From TrEMBL:
It comes from Candidatus Methanofastidiosum methylothiophilum. Its EC number is 2.4.2.14. [4Fe-4S] cluster binds at residues 237, 381, 431, 434. Keywords: 4Fe-4S, Aminotransferase, Glutamine amidotransferase, Glycosyltransferase, Iron, Iron-sulfur, Magnesium, Metal-binding, Purine biosynthesis, Transferase. This is Amidophosphoribosyltransferase. Pfam families: GATase_7, Pribosyltran. One of its GO terms (biological process) is 'de novo' IMP biosynthetic process. In the C-terminal section; belongs to the purine/pyrimidine phosphoribosyltransferase family. The keyword Magnesium applies.
Amino acid sequence: MCGILGTSSHNSAYECYRGLLAVQHRGQDSAGILSFDGIVHLKKEKGLVLNVFNKEELSKLEGFNAIGHVRYLTTGTSTLSEAQPFFLSYPCGIGLAHNGNITNFKELKKELEERNRCIHSKSDTEVMINILSEELVKNDTFGAIHECMKKIEGSYSAVVLLPKKLVAFRDPYGIRPLVFGEKTSLNGNAFSFASESVGLDVNGYSLIRDLLPGEAIVIEDNKVEKRVLCPKGRAHCMFEWVYFSRPDSVIEGKSVYEARIELGRNIEFEGEGDVVIPVPDTARTAALGFSEKYGIKHREGLIKNRYVGRTFIMPSQVSRDIAVRDKLNVIKGEIRGKKVILVDDSIVRGTTSRRIVSMLRSNGAKEVHMVSTCPPIKHPCYYGIDMPTESELIAATDTDIVAEKIGADSVTYQTIKGLIKAIGLKKEDLCLACLNGDYPTHIPEEVRKGLTRAREYEREADCKVGVI
C-alpha cells in the first residue's frame, strides 16, 4: 500500500512534496519525485519524505508536471533499486509511480525478457512501465493504457509523466484509491492526482471525484481528457476505511472519519467494562463511536511516540515487534484495577495485540477485552497489503482461541454486515477478499504459493539474525 501524487502546476515539485507528506502514512520505506521541463529530474532515496528532500533538492526538480511516491514494501526488496518513481528513456520516455500489486508479475516479466527487455529490479512497477512504454510506441496515450489494462492483472493506481503530459489511471475494479482535484490561481488552472483527498487538501485543490474503475485521465496544455477504457466492476478495498487512509480523507465520496465512528457504533459487545481505551492512532475514532453507544467512558490509556512509524507497514515481523515496544507507553492511572475495553482497527497477525494486552496487564489492568472494528481477517491479500499467508492470520482460528493467544479475556469482532453499513457502499462494490476469500480477480495458484514462500523466507531470515 503506497502513496502516489501527480501535479500539473507552476509549482509541481513542491506541491508533490507537500502532498507526499500528507500521505506519508501510506509508506515509510522510500520517497521520490520525478519532474520534467525538457530535461528529466529525479530524486528518490530510502527514508521518509522529510529526510529525502530539502529546499535545495526541491529547487532542482523543475518543470510544470511532476509525480511522486512513498513506498510500502509489498513486492521486491527494501533497497533503493525498488524505490519509485521509475523512469525509462527507451523506447519511449516515461516516468511512472504505482500503488498496488500486479498478480501476474512473473509471467509479464518473463515475456518482457523474451523480448530482450532488461528488468533491473524485483518491482512489479518496473514491469508495468516497460509494458506501457512498449505500447506507447504503437498507440496513442489512451490506446496504450487500454492495452496495458488488458495485460496487467491485480490492483493498480498509477500516475505517469510523459513529455508535456500528466496521466493517471486506475485498474478495472478500482481496488486501490485515486482521486482527482483542480484549483484556479493567477497562473491559471492546476490539476492534481493523489491516493487520498488529503494529498489534494494540503495544496489547496478541490476534490473533483475519484477516478472510475478502468479510467484514464490525461492533462496536456492545461486541458483535461477523460476516458473509461476497461471497466469490470467495483471492488474498493475496505481496509482503506478501516486502517490505511487518514481520517480526514474522503474516498469514493465516503468520509473515512464518519465510517470509523460508525465502525465503533456497529460493534455488538456483550461484556462489561470500566473504560474504553483506543490503540492509537487509527482506532481513536472508532473508540469514540463505541464509547457513545455503550455509555462507557473513553480515555487515552496508551500514548504513542509519534517518531515511530506505523508498525503494520514495516517490512518484517522483527521490526514490527521492536516498534511496538518503542511506540506505545501506558498511562497507568487509567488502567490500574479496571476492566479495559481495548479498541483496535483490526487483528491481523495478533503479535501487536498480544504485546499491547501484556502491557496493560503488567500495568495493573483487571481485565482486558479486545474489540476489533474489522471483521476476522482469514485470507491473504494479493492486492498490495502485507497479508500473504493464512498461517499468519490469527483469525483463521476460533475467537476463544484468538483471545487465548493474545492473552485477552475476550475478543469481539466487527461483523461484515456492520462493516458494510459503516462504509456506506454496496457490498458488491467492496473488496472483502481478506474476509471471505472472494477475490475480484483471478489469482493463479503459483502466485499464492510464491507469496507464501517469500514470507516464510523472511521469517527464516529473521530467525537467523537471532532477533526472534
